[in-house]
Amino acid sequence: MLVKTKGIVVSYIRYKESSIIVRIFTRELGLKAYIVNGVRSSNAKTKMGFYQPLTLLDLVVYNKENVGLNRISEVKLGRAYHKIPFDFLRSGIAMFMAEVLSRSVYEGYQNEDLFDFLVEALIVLDDEQAVLSHYPNVFLWGMARYLGFAPDVAAEFFEELREDFTKQMDWGPEMAYLDSLIVEDFAYADKISVQVRRNLLDHLLVFFSKHLDQPAEWKSVKVLRQMMA
């Protein structure tokens, strides 16, 4: 059966001499894996650029039940980025987003609200007026909200976090900062110290790892923390 859908590329791996297996988070079908034959050859009809992480695509795909790898019938660019590929900070944030997405969704997982949030977040990141200093923290909180494990207010978040610490911690500045982010979302533009922003990022990553049951180190965070200066 052919299905028309929109998709966000999560990742790909090389397959044989000129093909790839690409994981795409689609709006209608959730996370799916597709084999794309010959895309790495010099005379390929479809370019590899379509399958870079976080590329927005318009798709017509084959959807067969109980099949591990489906195929793509038609593909075109859903939206071209104007800033993300050419800006070092935006590219670093996008790399971080791709890792978070890859670790948050699983094969067949469908969540249209999460998909719409991701599209909105990518459009914001590509906007010249985006407030990048707060972006990673706002993005993580939004992901937690649409994945269903974010509490309503910052106090509840830090109360849950406190269970993992053996001594009393003073999280006043981080709590006030998170409360502001929850209210203003990507529009938040106040100046916050680098240390408070980094602290909240670390707390959110601990929170994510706990809820996703994935204790492995976040590979893109080291570079991201340096960018948050």
TrEMBL record:
SUPFAM superfamilies: ArfGap/RecO-like zinc finger, Nucleic acid-binding proteins. It comes from the Bacteria. Keywords: DNA damage, DNA recombination, DNA repair. Pfam families: RecO_C, RecO_N. Residues 1-77 form the DNA replication/recombination mediator RecO N-terminal domain. One of its GO terms (biological process) is double-strand break repair. Coiled coil: none annotated. GO terms for cellular component: bacterial nucleoid. InterPro entries: ARFGAP/RecO (IPR037278), DNA_rep/recomb_RecO_N (IPR022572), NA-bd_OB-fold (IPR012340), RecO (IPR003717), RecO_C (IPR042242). PANTHER family: DNA REPAIR PROTEIN RECO. Belongs to the RecO family. Involved in DNA repair and RecF pathway recombination. This is DNA repair protein RecO. It comes from Cecembia calidifontis.
